[in-house]
Hints:
Elements: E1 5-13, E2 16-17, E3 24-26, E4 29-33, H1 38-42, H2 51-57, E5 66-74, H3 77-101, E6 117-125, E7 132-139, E8 143-144, H4 145-150, H5 156-162, H6 170-186, H7 192-206, H8 213-225, H9 229-250, H10 259-266, E9 268-273, E10 282-286, E11 292-296, H11 311-322, E12 323-334, H12 336-339, H13 343-354, E13 355-362, E14 375-382, E15 393-398, H14 418-424, E16 445-449, H15 450-454, H16 469-472, H17 480-507
Parallel strand pairs: 2-8, 9-12, 13-15
Antiparallel strand pairs: 1-5, 3-4, 4-5, 6-7, 10-11, 12-14, 13-14, 15-16
Helix pairs in contact: 3-6, 6-7, 7-8, 7-9, 8-9, 9-10, 11-13
Amino acid sequence: xxxxxxxxxxxxxxxxxxxxxxxxxxxxxxxxxxxxxxxxxxxxxxxxxxxxxxxxxxxxxxxxxxxxxxxxxxxxxxxxxxxxxxxxxxxxxxxxxxxxxxxxxxxxxxxxxxxxxxxxxxxxxxxxxxxxxxxxxxxxxxxxxxxxxxxxxxxxxxxxxxxxxxxxxxxxxxxxxxxxxxxxxxxxxxxxxxxxxxxxxxxxxxxxxxxxxxxxxxxxxxxxxxxxxxxxxxxxxxxxxxxxxxxxxxxxxxxxxxxxxxxxxxxxxxxxxxxxxxxxxxxxxxxxxxxxxxxxxxxxxxxxxxxxxxxxxxxxxxxxxxxxxxxxxxxxxxxxxxxxxxxxxxxxxxxxxxxxxxxxxxxxxxxxxxxxxxxxxxxxxxxxxxxxxxxxxxxxxxxxxxxxxxxxxxxxxxxxxxxxxxxxxxxxxxxxxxxxxxxxxxxxxxxxxxxxxxxxxxxxxxxxxxxxxxxxxxxxxxxxxxxxxxxxxxxxxxxxxxxxxxxxxxxx
Length: 508
């Protein structure tokens, strides 16, 4: 064997923009902006590299906006290249894992694949009725390195640093290998190979012990993720099913995987969530000319009822796909979800048809997200497929009208929700009693039949009936600080609306 020497290996990396003022070093890796940092890279080895040397060294990198390097120890240049190639492949999978974790599936980072600049156009035409589908695939946007450094919620830098550490614990090695498989899986989402890689990642982490691999995985997953004995038994059965499908695909017994294969195993009995608020849903990316552009983000999924750029509407559709046939959901949503037309109306009608959409809690203004935003909690139970409409009635509790809370002086507490909990009757919600009546128009708990709701314009669920005392009785106004707070919240809400309108006009 020859003497070991230290080398630094450079390669183009596509889909990534180094938007920092200086090259970025993470562990033994360095990211350079091309062509700005080429001279900086070469100055490590040459005092004053000529332009000819720069052009010679980096002639094959001009199609990519960034260059990556890694320091390795090897016996010769060929061995150094082989070692670097393995490390570049692994760091590519870390980037893909991170992109998937933060929900940016329109981007891809690769050291060897330049598909981000390749457009593949598909036109599919039905011979029977002439229906057609047009799509462009293979297009990947370029994402800034700072995005990864700012959202390091999955230990991004730590994963990269560990790639070149020689002494790692067995568990650290397992984590890195699992990330490798998950990175590969993100390249083939919806394909059998992607599914196999994803399950293999779970196998890598959980196949510990002397029992068989399948039993190890299912037992360990159920133990870690389960909340109680009943839940763990369910998780174990679901995991067994997924691993069986993985084995069938890997051994050729099965060539394709359908949604139905995994639907029961990956669906949830309960979903409690507060999706991100705001109507703006766009991606900022850098085009081939280096200019910043913005593109509306519209999800087109076959399991969605309709397409929309509204994040909350997409979240509602996504939640519906996650629920088991008897699953339950409680979701915090802004008012626009209850009254917006177009996609909003379509989704409300579908929820009323396929689920028991039984309860709405109208929350006080400004306790979620920021001042001026009016939010609600909607409760619905999914039901098995049926030709009959599942929602028969909707119960609404108004905790907003004539209720004034502030984040500091008068915050809302659990005590303020006690009346709603009692009216909701969680022990048996089918035994409920209205507090509203003709004799008590101030009652906050009211029932509406499905016929009443369907008769409303756009199937609006933004329903209120209690008179605002501040408008009806000028001699009984709220305290000055409460009035000032209401004014500020309304002004903020109006400004947000104007800002969204302005952004829309700029795009048109």
